[in-house]
Amino acid sequence: MPLDDLEERRPARRTKGAGRGSDAAKPTLRTIADLTGLAVTTVSRALADAPQIALETRQRVAQVAAEIGYLPDRAAQRLRTGRTNVISLILDPHEEILGYATSMIKGVTSALRGTPYHLVISPHFSDSPQIEPVSHIIRNRLADGIIFTRTEPMDERVKLLMQNDFPFICHGRTELATPHPFVDYDNYDFAYRAAKKLIASGCAKLTIVLPPETFTFAHHMRHGFMAAVREEGIGYEIATGITLDSKSDDIRHYFDKRLSQPSPPDGFVCGGEVVAMAIMAACHDHGLLPGREVDFVAKQTSGLFDQIRPRVETIYEDLTEAGFLMGEMLLRRIAGPLPVGELQHLQRLADE
């Protein structure tokens, strides 16, 4: 027999001022109990979606709560359960990947939908240590789990979180000896396949703009690119003095100068849409036509290049899927310890 059938019942009555648009005090569990005729303990369990409470009762309580604008007291919940019901997503503002933040947020919120968890965005800026926002969250217990991006080979954030047994998922891998939770994109394979495509199109000399060397995916991209050019024995160069984090004008100016010098590259591996557009602008200013004198392969994370003519060869990275996977895996980790292997996912490129 469902628990609510055993709980104390009282005649339902409408309390003074209850309902939308009233000037009454903030609705409480007692307000819902008075409106439904259920005991406060039953209301509390129903809102927590306890399986011992009949589904019909849970739905009725949820409907009344929504109608009167009931919101749980987060401070009281934290004192009672030790949980904040908050997931913190630490994001670095950067422009090299279009739609990075919005796609990531969309994916994470999709994973949290229908759960008691709320997503809080915690910004991190490049002029401050990466570990600061993580330390702040752990020290003040501001979240039940953390998601962060732009990992480094010996990432101090991963070390700190693991030492404190604090649930987390990062977007990207490290080179630490101890396995840790992550979702990552196969940037080695991206750079390898992009270089191979350019070679197959007839390019004689390739170049690539890499992420800053401090990030792990910079090494993955470099190794994939070098594997392809060495296999084919083709000319190559790696852009120096600029990275994927450079301003688009700086990237355009770099290639404007490089294309004026002897033996310029004619094939470009672009790790983001912004860098691709900057290089395309430089080539256009030199009268070089895509598909004829020069070729590009770009990593695509938005729908922008679907509208570009002439068409540019692209390889897709699904950031929304990455966000969803991180959110879903983090919820499972918060629920209890899991083997690390169940909290790791590498997004593979689609077979051609």
From TrEMBL:
GO molecular function terms noted in the UniProt entry: DNA-binding transcription factor activity; transcription cis-regulatory region binding
Stored InterPro entries: HTH_LacI, LacI/GalR-like_sensor, Lambda_DNA-bd_dom_sf, Peripla_BP_I
Pfam families in alphabetical order: LacI, Peripla_BP_3
Ranges for domain HTH lacI-type: 27-81
Alphabetical UniProt keywords: DNA-binding, Transcription, Transcription regulation
Highest taxon above the source species: Bacteria
Record region (Disordered): 1-25
Protein name: LacI family DNA-binding transcriptional regulator
Species of provenance: Endobacterium cereale
